[in-house]
Amino acid sequence: MFQLGKTIVSEDILEKDFVCNLSACKGACCVDGDAGAPLSEEETKIMESIYSKVKPFLRKEGIAAIEAQGTWVVGTDGTLETPLIDEKDCAYVIFDGKTALCGIEQAYNQGIVDWKKPVSCHLYPIRVKDFSEFAAVNYDKWDICDPACSLGAELEVPVYKFVKEALIRKFGEDWYAELEKVAEELKKQNSVKKR
Question: Distance (Å, rounded) from C-alpha 131 to C-alpha 109?
């Protein structure tokens, strides 16, 4: 772990490789698990404001879940999150064949909304936990992502590079530039140790 501004960062995001492999996992992270995607308070307001524009992209089951539960819910542990369909799929999930995709992101891709998706989804496999004085930035290892780890290793893409856009969205360009410096320094140290 190392500190970067007001964040405590796991070295795993620099050392582990990861590239989403949708053809292998079929977007399982959007339909597996026991909770919706984590949301910030600001994001709940955004989801309320864009719902009418996103609704045409959603499945009828998702619309029914959202209309019954709201555009966001309070999870069992008190966190804000996306609602689920029958305690499984995220209510915003749509399918392209058997592959799960985000209805919000599809609306964004077509220029209907200017918000891509919850930052927690965009950041995955990184999870951020906010504390009063700092935020913890961790790599979330989940076996459904094994194909992404294999592809990342094959392409030699570390987690932090794979989620660069999302990290900049969350923490800013200056923070990311500092992260890159730490990554380069760590790489140098590791190559010296291997000699």
Answer: 33
